Amino acid sequence: MEKIKVIFFDWGGVLIKFPPHQTVKYWAKYLGIDHNSLLSFYERHKKKLWKGTWSQDFFWRRVSKKLKISFPKRRTLFEDAFSEAYKENKNIFSIAKNLYKKGYKLVLITNSEIPATNYFKRKNYNIFSKIFVSININMIKTEKQFYKYLLKKLKVRSEEALLVDDKTYCTSIAKSVGINTILFKNGRQLKRDLKKLVIK
Predict the structure, then answer these.
(1) 39 burial level (CB within 10 Å; 0-12, 13-18, 19+)
(2) Helices then strands (H, E): number in the chain?
(3) Is 167 in contact with 137 (CB distance < 8 Å)?
(4) Residue 182 backbone phi and psi in degrees, to 5
(5) What is the distance between the alpha carbons of residues 9 and 163, in angstroms, rounded to a whole number?
(6) Residue 135, class by beta-carbon neighbours within 10 Å (0-12 exposed, 13-18 middle, 19+ buried)?
(7) 7-43 tens-digit pLDDT
(8) Statement: residue 198 has pLDDT above 80
(9) If we measure between CA atoms, which residue out of 111, 159, 115 comes closest to residue 10?
(10) How far apart are CA 58 and CA 133, in angstroms?
(11) CA of 128: how far to CAs of 62, 97, 107, 177, in Å?
(12) Distance between CA 63 and CA 107 in Å, rounded?
């Protein structure tokens, strides 16, 4: 087995305890509308936000028209909601820091909008040498080309890379291009699976 050199960490669901749809709940409360209606609309169109084909303003214009509400006055609604929902998974950060100290190159990957990216940058996590965000590269983690792009940019072979992600469809796609994968469930399981890959 090739020695692993680069470890890709997913952000939401692995490094942070990001409650599903928590940001949408924040928006719905601020706007005074039904959470489920807004959630349904967001789920249908979130990939357009992640890839940058829809701007935040365009998203809110569509929401306003669909749900018959006024356009939100608060310009920081995306970032405020993200900040409210953001909770670090400290145990996983501890594991990541240990890997960094042992010389592994750590890379953060995420499907996110610009405000979430800006929030992360302000946290100044220096253990990550690179950050790849869907909206900046117009690709998302459910696409094979996303992982091929990562390997090319980092000049690393697929067998030298490892993805830690909590979504089966992401690990399956990464595995299809030859990347080692760990389907994340919890810190104890992650440590155990890292050891199986001769990463201690």
Answers:
(1) middle
(2) 10, 5
(3) no
(4) -130, 120
(5) 6
(6) buried
(7) 999 988 899 987 658 889 999 999 999 999 999 999 9
(8) no
(9) 111
(10) 20
(11) 36, 9, 5, 23
(12) 34
Determine the distance from the C-alpha atom of residue 38 to the mean position of all C-alpha atoms in its chain, rounded to a whole number. 21
65 CB neighbour count, 10 Å cutoff: 10
Q: Which two tokens stand for residue 42?
A: 């967001």
Size of the chain in residues: 200
* Residue 172 predicted with pLDDT over 90: yes
Give the whole-angstrom CA distance, residue 90 versus residue 14.
10
34/31 Cα distance (integer angstroms): 9
pLDDT at 154: 97
Residues whose CB falls within 8 Å of the CB of residue 138, separated by 6 or more in sequence, listed in order: 51, 52
In contact, 34 and 133? CB cutoff 8 Å: no
Tokens of 166: 């909590």
How far apart (Å, rounded) are the C-alpha atoms in residues 147 and 174?
Answer: 6
Provide the angle, in degrees to the nearest 10, between the axes of the packed helices 22-31 and 35-51: 120
Q: How confident is the model over 111-122, as a mean pLDDT?
A: 81
In 3D space, the residue among 52, 114, 53 whose CA is nearest the CA of residue 78 turns out to be: 114
State the pLDDT at residue 113.
85
The SS3 call for residue 150 is: helix
CA-to-CA separations, 141 to 151, 164, 187, in angstroms, rounded: 13, 12, 22
**Which of 194, 139, 185, 141 has its CA nearest to residue 13?**
185
